Each structure stands twice: as C-alpha cells, then as structure tokens.
Amino acid sequence: MQDTEFRANPAIGRQDGKTDMLDPSTITEAQRTALIRRYDLAGYRDSGCLDDLTGFAAELCGTPVALVSLVEEESQQFLSALGFEERHTPRNTSFCAHAMVAGETVMVVPDARLDPRFADFPLVVGPPHIRFYAGARLLSHEGVPLGAICVISPEPRPEGLSNFQFRGLEILATAVMGRLQDRRAQLEHVQTVEESKARVADSEQRFRTLADTMPQMVWSTLPDGFHDYYNARWYDFTGMPDGSTDGEAWNGMFHHDDQERAWTRWRHSLATGEPYQIEYRLRHHDGTYRWVLGRALPIRDAEGRITRWFGTCTDIHEQKLALEEREIVSQELSHRIKNIFAVISGLIAFAARSHPGFGGIASDLRDRITALGRAHDFVRPHSPQSQPKARQDSLHGLLGDLFEPYRGDEQTPRITVAGDDVPVDDRSATPLALLFHELATNAAKYGALSVLTGSVILTVQRNGEMVSLRWQELGGPKLHTAPERAGFGSQLVELSAVRQLGGKVRRDWERDGLVVTIDVPLAAFSRPPGTGPCR
C-alpha cells in the first residue's frame, strides 16, 4: 500500500488535514506499514537520537536493558538499545507487539515464565532469560500503534513498577513519539517542498514547451520589470544569444526612434499595473527593423500584488505596410472625390452662365454639392497635414464644419450646437449634410437667419438607443401660418432623415420661429467598431 492510500483512508486520517484517535484494533497491518514508511526510520539506531531516553528508562526502572522498538509486519527493529545487541527480532516472539495493543498505556509482565503468552519465547527460555518486562506503547498522532519503549530484567519483579516509574515510562513514550513525529514532520515538509518543486518544474516545462511552439515572441519579467525569460521565437527573430537581452537590454533592440516611447509606456505600466500595448519597430536578425505589436498583462496574487508580467510580441510588419498602403490609396481616392465635387460645382456654375434662366436652381444645386463636399472632406481619410481640428467621428465637429458659412461673430453666433455628442462616420455624413444644409439655407432665405437678430439653436439629446435633434429658430420673422405646400427642400429633409437615416421628422410652425424635431436611431450615425471600411 502506498502512503497516499494511508493518507486518503478515512479510517486513518481526515481529508481536512486533522486526525482522530482511533481504536488500534481497527488498523490493518498494511495501513500500519504505510504509516511506518512515513517516518523513514531506516538506520535510525545508528544516529543515537533516542539513546538518552532509553538510558533514562533503564535508570528510572533499575533494569540492565532498555529498548525502543518499532514493530513491523514480520519483525521488530530496535531504534535504540541499551544492554541488548540484537538489532531486530521476529515479531511472533515480541513482547512489544503485545504492549503496543494492550488496554493500558503501559504493559507490565512481572515474571514471563508464569505468563502463558510469553513462557515459551526463546528469549525467555534462553538468553537473555527475560523475566521482568514493562513497555509503554508508542502511538502516532493518528492513534496507530507503532511499537514501545520498554525495560527488561533477567530477574522477576513481583511488585512490578511503582507509580512514579509507571508514570515515567508514559512520559518517556510521549518524548520518544515527539522526536519521531518531529522527524516525520521534517521529512513530510521536505517531501512537500520537493513535490511542489516538481509541480512547478513540470508546470514551467509545460509553459516553455507551449511558449516555444507559439508563433509569437513570448517574454516575462519580475514585478520590477526585469526581463528574465524569452521563448525560442524571440531568439530566432532577433538572432541574439540566449540571455543577452535579459534585464533592460531589450529596449536596445527597438528602432532608435521608438526606444524612448516604448520605455516610457513600459514604465507607466509598471507604475500603474495597467496593461501594456504598443507598436514599435524591432530589429530582425537580418539587420532590418520590422513592426511588431507588444502586449503584456500583470499576474497578481491573492492580495492583488503583481508577481510577474507576461507579454508577447507579434510580427505585424506585413499588415502594417498593407494598412499604410491602403491608407495612402484611400487618401488619394478621397482627395480625388473632393476634387470631383469641386469640378461638379464648376460645371454647374458654367452651365448657369450659359442658361441665365436656371441661375437660381443652379445656385441651390451648387450649394448642396458644396455641403456634400464639406461632409465628405470631414470624414474622409486624411494625412497628418490635412487632418481636421475636430475629431472626425464627432457629430458636433461635423455640424460645426457645415455651419461655418453661417457662423457670425464670436459674441453673437448665428447657429449654436449644444447637448450630447454622437459618433458619426462616412455612412451618415452625407444625409446629415443634406439635412442640415437645407434647414440652414431655408433659415437664411426665409427664417431666423434672414435677419441680423435671428439665431438657431440645435440641441442634440441622446435617449438610450435614439437621438433627438431639435432645430429651433429664434428672432426671425414672425410666423402666422404653416406653408400651404412643402417645397423641394422639405422633401430633401424627409429623404435624408427618414429614408436614409431611418428617423422621423416633426415640424412645429411656432410664432417665434420654426422648430424641427428629428428622431434618429443611434445605430444610424455610425457602424459598430470593427465593421467599418478600412481607412
């Protein structure tokens, strides 16, 4: 039976690590053998660790022989012996085998010749002619009997032991078990440490094997950021000798222009515990620099303290170059589309000069084309030089750009945009441009913006998954009745808000000015992250 069988056996020990005292008669020999192995007592006699206790037992009881016995399945071995040369004897002729399961803590045999259990034992009939025996049983903390500490004399002792000697043997048995238990605890601690080391080593080996099969470069650091591990992929990529980039030497592998940025970002993560993520150029073994994506996360203990950082470097060079190429192409196409808007506006103006009767229609059409051009220019891919001042995904930014021709002075703005901001993209920019261009143009011709004292407030309010846009004209000509019929501009507003944005339009012809309320689903303003066109 293995030790694990003993530990798991409910008759011996509990799974919560505590133990119960048990009836020795319930313990099998296989279980005793498993427990004895946990003390690892081979050669214990030669160490002399118990000789002082056996010597004191002999002195206490006035006997020439004292022994500490360990009773095994077939024999008993003596862990300490005074006045007895044998190192072990058969169990079937052992006094201690009886003592360790006796009803009392100390078994006393005044004259072995008169006791039928022992009268024919070779050690009684022959040398050393045992007559008197007294043995105190040795019990493990689980209650399992292991043997006894005993005293032996060739002279019978009808009076047995005095109370003082009886109690003394009990105390000596406790002292013996204390020392044996200390040895067991020490050995179990060593075994636990070794098993823990073996598990850690196995776990680390599994991790290293897994890390070396990954296409990414994998690394780890101590809590202070000291790099102490790189997988094989790192050394294959960089061509550096093993260990040469430990510590802080990793930063020297980056492109000179990226080193300070990478170092600053890394120190920030170490100071705050925030995840580390950055793109930088890493030196390849062929001497070139390739773009990689660096990421790292902290590992924390139960108290939240960082115990280690694990990170990866992913080669994104081809994707980076492809993205840059797409960005350049996208910028060029968008720039050409912007030029097309200008060409169309020029063609309309040229046609209007050739056909003076269509001048008004041409002017309106050219203004609408210009508004579309403004919207496109706001959301299109830009180079760093042409980037708009406002965020390109901002509804407020887009509206501010569209209303630029109506701005007025800073003290008295003609159109004010207030309320919540909403993300926009190229999909919603066109209908929004047509919608608000028409409202602003009509206000400039007939409404609040047609007089110097008039103004418009556009309030944006987000309500869950809907966005309400309230266009309110103030200070313009007083309104008496609603128009009898809707013009082309009104139809264009309906087309943009309802058909293209999926919203609803309500007009209120209040005496102080027109109020237009447009309710649009939030999803109509921009695509979910990661689903838009590459830019």
Write the layout of secondary structure elements.
Layout: H1 3-8, H2 29-37, H3 44-47, H4 51-61, E1 65-71, E2 75-82, E3 88-90, H5 95-99, E4 106-109, H6 122-125, E5 132-139, E6 145-153, H7 163-213, E7 217-221, E8 227-230, H8 232-238, H9 256-272, E9 276-283, E10 289-300, E11 306-315, H10 317-354, H11 359-379, H12 395-402, E12 415-419, H13 426-445, E13 455-463, E14 466-474, H14 488-500, E15 504-510, E16 513-521
Parallel strand pairs: 12-13
Antiparallel strand pairs: 1-2, 1-6, 2-3, 4-5, 5-6, 7-8, 7-11, 9-10, 10-11, 13-14, 14-16, 15-16
Give a structural overview.
Residues 1-20 have low confidence and may be disordered. The longest helix has 51 residues, at 163-213. α4 (51-61) packs antiparallel against α7 and α13 packs antiparallel against α14. The protein has a six-stranded antiparallel beta sheet. A five-stranded antiparallel beta sheet has the order 8-7-11-10-9, sandwiched between helices. The protein has a five-stranded mixed beta sheet with strand order 12-13-14-16-15, with helices on one face. It has helices at residues 3-8, 29-37, 44-47, 51-61, 95-99, 122-125, 163-213, 232-238, 256-272, 317-354, 359-379, 395-402, 426-445, 488-500; strands at residues 65-71, 75-82, 88-90, 106-109, 132-139, 145-153, 217-221, 227-230, 276-283, 289-300, 306-315, 415-419, 455-463, 466-474, 504-510, 513-521. With 535 residues, the chain is an alpha+beta fold. The protein starts with a helix and ends in a 14-residue tail after the last strand.
